[in-house]
Amino acid sequence: MRIPGNTIWPLKLVTHLFKLVQNASPAISLKLHTHTPVTAMRPRPPCADGDARRWQLQTPRGSVACTHVVHATNAYASSLLPQLSAGRRTRIIVPTRGQAISIRAAVPARELTLSGFTANYGMEYWFVRPGSAPDEHPLVIVGGARHAEGGSTDATTDDSVVDVAVGRRLREFLPEVFPGKFENGTEPEMEWVRPSNGVFHSTCQFCIDRSLPGTRCLP
Length: 219
What we know:
The protein has two domains: 10-69, no CATH class; 96-196, no CATH class. Strand 2 and strand 3 form a beta hairpin. It has a five-stranded antiparallel beta sheet with strand order 5-6-7-4-8, covered by helices on one side. It has a three-stranded antiparallel beta sheet with strand order 1-2-3, with no helix packed on it. It is built from three helices and eight strands; from the N terminus they run H-E-E-E-E-E-E-E-H-E-H. The chain has helices at 10-22, 164-177, 201-208, and strands at 40-43, 55-59, 62-66, 96-104, 117-119, 124-129, 139-144, 190-196. It is α+β, with helices and mostly antiparallel strands.
């Protein structure tokens, strides 16, 4: 089955959106503070002067008061919202280590196509990053293999280490699917992990069920 789609470079997309908003109107003042994580959030007491800012956010660079807070922290949400923790009975967000590698193909991109693919009901996924020259052997990004034998499926936000069993399965996957187009034993040029919240069915419900907490305004 083929489904039309595209891939994006998230940093470039967000940077462009930021520039568009910056230039939208002289009445808009927008600043972007990178490397400034919010470490705590608490409600502010009502102010006699009518100040509508309800929340106080603490960061390593100081605190800030605001009226609205948008939680876009994905698998890290429970650090500020413990009611969404994986340890709770509801298990609304279950963070899991998502692992990926970039591996060099043994053939040009035209022999692989530029389509993205999934296999095993989405448990593995990959797409080609074509180079600038027609005959260049492209990098292919492949991720998943969370259920590799010996791999860990425990809830975790630790993205400082890779899972050896998952890494081994990712290295084996493309040479098995495309014989002759990837060399067996080729080491990836990069390997990385990121906490993901899209693993368990309870998390999928969190994404689509408007009745669950977290998909609307929080109290």
